[in-house]
Amino acid sequence: MGAMLAGGIAGLRSSDSARTDALLLLAHALGRSRAWILAHDDALVTEADGRRFSALCAARGEGRPIAYVLGEAGFYGRAFAVDERVLVPRPETERLIDEAVTFLRDAGRAAPSVLDVGCGSGAIACTLAAEVSDAAVLGSDDSAGALAVAAENARRLGVAARCTFACGDLAAPAGGRRFDVVVANLPYVPTASVGLPPQAVGFEPRHALDGGPDGLDVYRRFVPAAPALMKPAGLLLLEAAPPQMDELSALARAAFGAERVAEGSDFAGLARYVRIETPAP
């Protein structure tokens, strides 16, 4: 097995994480943990396992995200099913979960309502339902394929009874309802910066990345209508990239008033999201 792992590493040498990738793929192919693989260097491997490992390495060697090859990605301590219909959840988005969970717990509201606009894989929606045990969560997306993945993740995590997913443009599926918390992680990559294969990001759905010339076209449609989605003393969270924070904050101030808007940072200390609290009644 050691020789097989070494061959996988050599085949993935174009990746800057070749050893980690090969180890993950071999563990997946064998149905074993990485620790077991490392502790059993001399274990025998069947031809079927070898073929499965080779196929996984070939897919990764094409540049496909490791999460697509494995069929899952980690987010907020949980494993989410992912494939080419959805973006791979990013670690920086976990800060939105921190903010929303802290807000809901501090507010002490019974059965709070949450809207995840552009929910994709359901990582945000399902995580909030799992972290806040009485929250009712609606996830919207204009991709039926993405919603199928989100529904599967809700079932896997045991939160399907409190997660509803609906197809439509932005918040249209909300149907005029108002929410305690609204989270929007919408497309914000400038068109010219959206990668192509063999870059890993080039395998992700372009419509979920491309935010127009400066990355904020979708937010310019969403933010002015966002006040109608909010309950009094509610929280709205908007994720984008650090270079876009000034403009996104300006959009939020125009819709909600300057005193309601603040910026939040990701784990690297870079401005990553806009936070808006609506006034109490």
Reconstruct the topology from this structure.
Blueprint: H1 2-11, H2 18-30, H3 34-39, H4 47-61, H5 66-70, E1 72-75, E2 78-81, H6 94-107, E3 113-117, H7 123-131, E4 136-141, H8 144-156, E5 163-167, E6 179-184, H9 217-222, E7 230-239, H10 245-256, E8 261-265, E9 271-277
Parallel strand pairs: 3-4, 3-6, 4-5, 6-7
Antiparallel strand pairs: 1-2, 7-9, 8-9
Helix pairs in contact: 1-2, 2-4, 6-7
Fold and architecture overview:
The structure is a single chain. The chain has 281 residues and is α/β, with parallel strands linked by helices. The protein is 37% helix and 19% strand. The protein has helices at residues 2-11, 18-30, 34-39, 47-61, 66-70, 94-107, 123-131, 144-156, 217-222, 245-256; strands at residues 72-75, 78-81, 113-117, 136-141, 163-167, 179-184, 230-239, 261-265, 271-277. A seven-stranded mixed β-sheet has the order 5-4-3-6-7-9-8, with helices on both faces. It starts with a helix and ends with a strand.
